[in-house]
Amino acid sequence: MPYGRIKIDTVTFTDGGSDRSIVLSGLVNLVSGSLSASGAISIDLVRANTVSGATVTGDAGSFATLTATTGNINTLVSSGLVSGTVARFNSITGNALTVNANINTSTITGFSCFFTTGQVLGTLTTSNISTNSVNASAVTATVGTFNTLSGGTATGNTYNVTTINAVTGKYTSLSGTTVTGDYLNATSGHFNTITVDAPSTFNTDLSVNQKATIATGSFTTIERVNILSGGSAALPAINISGSIRTNGIYKGSNDSLSVVTSGIAHINISPRGYVGIGGNVDPDSYSFLANNLVISGSSNEGLIIDAGAINFASILFTAPDKSYKGAIRYANGDNSLRFVTDNSERAIITSGGNFGIGTSFPNKNLEIQGTSSGVAADAVIRLRDQYSGTWFANTDNSAIEFYSADTNGPGAGVRSKIANTVEDTTGAAQALTFWTTQNTGGSTLTERLRITSSGNVGIGTQSPASKLHLYSASGDTKLIIEADPTNTNEDDNPYIVFRQDGGLEEAAIWKGSLVPGENNNKLYISNSTSGISAPSGGIGFLTASNNSNYANGIERMTITEAGRVGIGSATPTALLDVSSDVLRLRTAKTPSSAGDTGNTGDICWDANYVYVCIATNTWKRSPLSTW
Fold first, then answer.
1. 184 or 143, which is more confident?
2. Which residues contact 62 (CB under 8 A, 6 or more apart)?
3. Which pairs from 249-253 meet CB under 8 Å and 24+ separation?
């Protein structure tokens, strides 16, 4: 066709066959009017300054090449290649779409789209898109390469983007060998997966003006992430909760970093790297040496370590060289709590509450076992006071108290104690004292026994004058030595034994049998001592007058080691040696006859005779006369 104008007001094909299609070819300046066909409208080449018309309708429009300075087609256009400076289409479908200027259309669908500048009022859907600038309300692409992407919603599988500027962006994957750009600027962003393979460096800032919601994210390298707004617990800068901003991360005014859940900053990392757990806890506000981790709250707070059924839940302590040194370990196997120092277990609390030091199997509430053998004691409990200065006599500087929780009687309280008691004002002399309450009740402790600094033991007295001093302020004072309390063994006897001269048991007083099995209840006084010269050994009986000291007593009777008894004589020469001019028998006795009962040697008297039994039941008498 020659270069000119074709004007068609209406072309209508309603029948079938090969004539259902309109085929135009040639070089046309203007196509106007209405084209209507039940089949296809096919134009091999249209090259015009203006393509316009009231209505272009048809089942399909197919073009080998469509080139226009301006274009306005209100129906579907299908072409292998669409290019132009400015184009306006209701919808475009093609294998390859190349636009140098603007495409103003509601829908673009194509296998590959290449834009210098693109404006899509509706939806851009493509498998592969490459453009310097696209402005679309919705973009869907399998692969996208953008210098600038702006619009309402962008969805797709993979994007390689230099700059993203969108009201909302939804991506299945945002990836690239290198992702570079001035800003990632989004009012809101939702990402299912973000993966950047090495090398991956954001050369400038990754900025989020308000919030970014990331379900999962992985970056090999990010040079810098800049949160333009620090945010708060109520409005975290990085939001991880969806549309309601209650969970996220924000930066505090003092360069701290806080993690928010349910609108409360439950984890706070201070500028020094210390961590606070609890509602708005600042770990730097605690002036302690161990505030690297602070758990705080207004209710019951704690730290839980959950281990396997037969394993240890542990807190470990290491040396500067990272070697294992100490631990607090809970053994789930036997429900014990164990304490380790210098890589060795030192103490244990069993499941039954027994506390063992140096032993792993304590059988009592507290059991201490030494760690070495030898003469030196190494299982020791030490109570140490911290006082230095002037002391007050009879005051305690350390004590072990025994407490009763029984509320009956006098009520709960301390019932007894063992104390270290100061004896003078210098603190040099200190005694060990034992205290109890009254056996009739009451809560007042009374000292019962004292071992002084000199080793004297006082019972009932604070100042014992000898190794054992018994004292009663009123009533009798008794020393009871008891044996055989059940009266079942007569050979079990109470003794007082006197030992000297190198540990020899040389004397004793006891009650009971002299020979095993004898079964008697005599009181025996025995002294086995002998000396080099007389008098030596034996038993002496002394008395004194005028309340003088026992050492001032005078020996009144002696029983020598040979068994001689001296009265008034320390050296008796006979079995009975009385150093006196009078021997008195106070009571008179008169045998009934010379054959009266009597033992050899018996002597008796009456007013007329002195009687002597010279043999068993045989008496003789001598008359008495005056002078």
1. 143
2. 40, 41, 42, 78, 79
3. 251/227
